[in-house]
Amino acid sequence: MGFCAWEETKLQKTKAKSEMEAIRTAEVLKxxxxxxxxxxxxxxxxxANRLNIVLLVRIIGIGLLIAITLLNSSVHAQNGTSTSKxxxxxxxxxxxxxxxxxxxxxxxEKDVTLKISLLxxxxxxxxxxxxxxxxxxxxxxxxxxxxxxxxxxxxxxxxFLSIHxxxxxxxTPYARKQAIFGTETYVLGLHKTQESLEVAMRENSVILLxxxxxxxxxxxxxxxxxSYILFSLNQSANHEASIQLASLIEDxxxxxxxxxxxxxxxxxxxxxxxxxxxxxxxxxxxxxxxxEEKELNTSQVQEYIASAIYRAVKxxxxxxxxxx
Length: 324
Ligand SMILES: [Zn+2]
Description:
Layout: H1 3-31, H2 40-48, H3 50-60, H4 62-80, E1 87-93, H5 109-127, E2 131-135, H6 145-154, E3 159-166, H7 174-179, E4 183-188, H8 194-204, H9 213-216, H10 238-255, E5 261-267, H11 270-273, E6 279-286, H12 290-296, H13 299-323
Parallel strand pairs: 1-2, 1-3, 3-6, 4-5
Antiparallel strand pairs: 4-6
The structure holds zinc ion.
Zinc ion is lined by residues 94-95, 101, 109, 164, 203.
């Protein structure tokens, strides 16, 4: 048996197993629609398997699946806004350790994102004593996407900020690289442009470096556009809040911090999908742009960016407070 044939058999087996699980979950749904709450754990388990989503949609229809997703989100949302604890901000410096992220002419994404993240945490702790800051990493260490989200979920963070730097593909003509710069803040959703899909694919591709990624991410293929269709199902209660937070951040970047804001966008970022609270992924600028790379490596611009995010968090927290 050749390698390809073997691979195919393995794939078929995975698909068959997945189909069985989807049918089982669908049966539970059909049989006990009224006893929905009791079966919640089983449902979540079914949904947790990404391969099953397409099958589930086929079997039970999209309406019910959205209902489940909404129920799922509202449970998470209730957990996330408990009044008995400090407002918790989870800061996630992108990449790290043996995953450098993207490169500029002289700097690496993992280093720039760590510096700005630590600065942001310091400003938050000093200026808002009623806020708790947790980090997914504070040093140059390797950490998987799922583990990052777990830190936020385990700490019942109120918001999750994943900090990254952008770049255009290496094959992009030099002139275009120098023409494109600025910040983008992403929320989870189905991409509306090819560019957004490409940014998500690049950021998600880090899971390929993780051990047993196929098993861990249950069939999610970071380089296959088909995998991204599942993000169209994101009807999360956190979606609106995430957009609000992202808008405040981009507004600060563009109007207060002297950055060029390229706006709020949405795409399928694995790390945002795994979090159970309002979550954004901030691309602080393009390392593929010579001028912007230099700026992002100065302490002054790092301070501007961190302060801008801090002010947005403060504004967001006040808005949430005024609603409660
Ligand atoms: Zn990144």
